[in-house]
Amino acid sequence: MRQITVLGATGSIGVSTLDVVARHPERFQVFALTAHRQLDKLREQCLQFHPRYAVLGDEALAAQLQQQLREHGLSTEVLAGEAGLVAVASHPDVDTVMAAIVGAAGLPSSFAAAQAGKRVLLANKETLVLAGKLFMDAVQASGAQLLPIDSEHNAIFQTLPRDYRNALVREHPRSHGIRRILLTASGGPFRDRDPATLHEVTPEQACAHPNWSMGRKISVDSATMMNKGLEVIEAHWLFSTPVELIDVVIHPQSIVHSMVEYLDGSILAQLGSPDMRTPIAYALDYPQRIEAGVSPLEFGKFGALNFYPPDLQRFPCLRLAFDALRAAGAMPAVLNAANEVAVDAFLSRRIRFTDIARLVETTLEHYQPAAPSDMESTLAVDTEARRQAMVQMKALAC
Ligand code: NAD
Ligand code: MG
């Protein structure tokens, strides 16, 4: 039985993970479930899965949940805050950790799982954007098994040569016959919208993704295409691939989840319904394939598949992410922090949709710290970049 910790259990990825887990009670046992503030949802999940531990964002919430679970006769122990997350991510009895917290808040716990040598199912792409080198070094040092959950990276993982896929230290992709990685992108809800009207879109419109149902932060990132920018950085670290070998292709139907092109001209792709339970199931029991509850793709129904290059004028966030990756050092971490501040401000209607890119760009211009060398200095860059983004928000009078 695999003992599984689900970090961010109440979110979109967390719920899909538990859906797959529940289909295979003979294979998986839930060791710990965590949430930030969603006490009621976490309680219901605890009542269904009987984890050994649960974690909530602060002591008061944790005490409340502890009391409620006792009343239901459950022996689950409830922990609080970051220390609780780190404890359940690195506990010796755990073998698999789903890292599905949103944003930089997920970094310490996903890093702890990597350091402890777990099978890490990484949904939290921000971990690699903030601390790609440190995280990959930790994976290598501990011998952790890193499996990507992001659908594009999971697709790439599936279509890479097996020796390259499973190597902890990789040679240049060209020496494995790989010409380039093609990351597909739906283009989000505003792919064809008149750019002159983008300043007036609402959080509700930005969160209404045409193909995927996701948390609010990643939905806004998909609408700005910052999500694809973060994914380019994620692919760079996950697959030891130089930025010039990573291309983005707009593919509105989200059926082809990404591709790898080889030197002989072959392109291998992974296809499927846009349902995160596919990559989750693939990673949960890798290398075995298990039932995920995903409806089969009906070729007769979806008609044409289209592909075309992205428009960097319409989607400045994608350009900013490519620039941050080329600049390297601390710049991807600054990009990520400024984006989190901007998305949060947009979701609470403090800035307009088009201000997100403006805010990220000016923060990148004004704050260019030295490359962080450890986790502490990475988190310090993140904190300062957030402060700078708040200053820029005032200066821009967004
Ligand atoms: P979500 O907003 O639906 O869920 C986030 C989860 O994290 C919740 O359980 C929440 O309680 C927890 N959380 C939020 N803030 C926290 C904090 N400060 N401390 C501890 N826990 C906190 O998000 P999601 O859509 O499930 O995305 C999770 C991660 O997976 C993100 O990094 C996202 O980019 C990535 N991802 C999601 C999808 C998708 O389809 N939803 C696809 C690919 C990658
Ligand atoms: Mg993705």
From TrEMBL:
GO biological process, one term: isopentenyl diphosphate biosynthetic process, methylerythritol 4-phosphate pathway involved in terpenoid biosynthetic process
Enzyme Commission number(s) from the entry: 1.1.1.267
Pathway participation: Isoprenoid biosynthesis; isopentenyl diphosphate biosynthesis via DXP pathway; isopentenyl diphosphate from 1-deoxy-D-xylulose 5-phosphate: step 1/6
Residue sites binding 1-deoxy-D-xylulose 5-phosphate per the record: K125, S151, E152, S186, H209, S222, N227, K228, E231
Binding site for NADPH: T10, G11, S12, I13, R37, N124, E126, G215
Gene3D superfamilies recorded: 1.10.1740.10, NAD(P)-binding Rossmann-like Domain
UniProt KW keywords: Isomerase, Isoprene biosynthesis, Magnesium, Manganese, Metal-binding, NADP, Oxidoreductase
Domain DXP reductoisomerase C-terminal: 271-387
Cofactor: Mg(2+); Mn(2+); Co(2+)
Swiss-Prot/TrEMBL catalytic activity: 2-C-methyl-D-erythritol 4-phosphate + NADP(+) = 1-deoxy-D-xylulose 5-phosphate + NADPH + H(+)
Domain 1-deoxy-D-xylulose 5-phosphate reductoisomerase C-terminal span(s) in chain numbering: 146-239
GO MF assignments: 1-deoxy-D-xylulose-5-phosphate reductoisomerase activity; isomerase activity; manganese ion binding; NADPH binding
Name used for this protein in its record: 1-deoxy-D-xylulose 5-phosphate reductoisomerase
Native organism: Leeia aquatica
Lineage start: Bacteria, Pseudomonadati, Pseudomonadota, Betaproteobacteria, Neisseriales
